[in-house]
Amino acid sequence: MDIVLVPGFWLDASSWTEILPPLVEAGHRVHPLTPPGLESPDAPRAGIGLRQQIDAVTAVVDAIDGPVVLVGHSGGGAVIYGVTDARPDRIARAIYVDSGPLGPGESINDNLPYEGDDIPLPPWDFFDDADLIDLDDDLRAAFRARAIPEPRGVAYDAMELHDERRLDVPTTVIACEFTAAQLSDWVGAGQPFVAELARLTDAEYVDLPTGHWPQFTKPDELGALLLATVER
Fold this sequence. Notes:
The chain has about 230 residues and is α/β, with parallel strands linked by helices. The protein has helices at about 20-25, 50-60, 75-85, 135-145, 150-155, 180-190, 195-200, 215, 220-230, and strands at about 1-5, 30, 70-75, 90-95, 120, 150, 170-175, 205. It has a single domain, classed as Rossmann fold, CATH 3.40.50. The chain has 9 helices and 8 strands. α2 crosses α3. Pfam families: Abhydrolase_6.
């Protein structure tokens, strides 16, 4: 199976490195991506928004023969949802890592502080305590050293969706800083922030208890869970 991995904010393809071995050893073709604007700290980010990142990942899907599994972490979840909307017949499964589908007209996070076209990684006290579970001082230092500013448009742009066949794409949400049971309860209660997730016809929720960056805090567990999900 071809597996396309889309990182969350401030991260490039290398952020997936530690979760790749079990997928590769099982014979899957793995494509960790660096989204537009994340090529380097000095890369130009003017004019790069959510649509440009969606289009870039869609182009990768188009270059692959056969079905594709999409994996999106954090803000990358919005990107892969845009791809399922663009190519619903090509996606075998969408896997959201501590993230979920973004509804039409919504933005990923229009509260992030920016500097011109850049959103630098904020100070740690900007984040909720639940985000930072298991992210110890060494991991925080390594994350900050590798962090690349996110294009402001990616966080602030409104999602545009066009093809409701996206709602039938099989979906897995890996719940990290909240539980699968909580997520199920929120969907059942009609909470607005999971409204788009509630519209999906084939969605499952699985637990991986840790903070918002399991590729750093629980890489072995995340790799094993992705493998189990793909092979099932």
